[in-house]
Design brief:
Layout lengths: L2 H25 L5 H9 L13 H23 L1 H21 L3 H13 L6 H9 L4 H27 L15 H4 L2 H4 L1 H18 L37 H17 L1
């Protein structure tokens, strides 16, 4: 691996890790479905806790579907715009959750948030382009970062929402209103973290985009060297004669014929 490619590999890996740290703040939202349902129950008294059980499967299903769709989006609009679009869609979903106390709108915004995760696997393609032999190692690193950062957001969210450590009792159907209202405070975390970490990751990843890869680094010539085929300068080591050399050879042949 050349020095320039190694630098791009490092910057892309760091940028991907930063992007995962930001996006993991929305993945953990589904773990607070009990608090979310209690918050919605303040306005919609008819719902039961069973309605909150659908939140996590909705998010998981959308994330799973969004991953292959993300590859198609990246081909259409490019790597950078894909991350920016994912960021915008995610913020729309988070703001929607922050503003709504309707269970059906909550399902809808969970769909949006899950779909916004299509950018999670896009940076991985950039890294594995440089080091395809390390796909397993890279996937393991990204998985560990996702799990650790999600755990940190989970502990932080639990502290913000229920710092008193109140536990539901058998006679309790929902958390008290003063605890349920704190879920809106947790939404500030992804609202701040997602755009911040996305911008920071782009600062590291901007060096490299596969769609604009320089031909000099990709196209091998017959002699094993790596150069641009579009280079108009013919190497001195080449055996292909130039037009001037052809003319000179023709003149020498004519002279020899005349001498004979």
């Amino acid at each position: 691996m050349s020095k320039s490619k190694y630098q791009k590999y490092k910057s892309t890996l760091i940028g991907t890790i930063i992007n995962i740290i930001g996006m993991s703040s929305i993945v953990v939202i589904s773990s607070f479905n009990v608090y979310i349902t209690s918050y919605i129950h303040i306005k919609q008294k008819w719902i039961t806790m069973h309605y909150g059980l659908f939140l996590s499967p909705i998010l998981t299903l959308c994330v799973t579907i969004a991953n292959p769709i993300g590859g198609l989006i990246e081909k259409k609009i490019g790597f950078y715009y894909s991350l920016i679009l994912s960021n915008i869609i995610c913020l729309i979903g988070i703001f929607g959750l922050y503003l709504t106390q309707n269970i059906w709108l909550c399902y809808f915004f969970f769909l949006i948030i899950g779909f916004s995760c299509f950018s999670l696997n896009i940076p991985l393609k950039n890294i594995t382009f440089y080091v395809p032999e390390k796909k397993g190692f890279i996937n393991a690193v990204i998985s560990v970062v996702l799990q650790i950062s999600a755990s940190i957001y989970g502990f932080l969210g639990e502290f913000i929402i229920n710092k008193e450590g109140y536990s539901l009792k058998k006679e309790d159907k929902f958390y008290p209103d003063y605890i349920a209202n704190n879920i809106s405070k947790f939404y500030y975390i992804p609202i701040i973290c997602v755009p911040f970490f996305t911008v920071l990751s782009l600062l590291f990843i901007y060096i490299y985009d596969p769609s604009f890869e320089n031909e000099n680094e990709n196209i091998p010539l017959n002699d094993g060297s790596i150069n641009a085929l579009t280079n108009p300068i013919i190497s001195s080591e080449s055996n292909i004669p130039t037009n001037n050399e052809k003319d000179e050879n023709d003149e020498e042949k004519k002279k020899k014929k005349n001498e004979k």
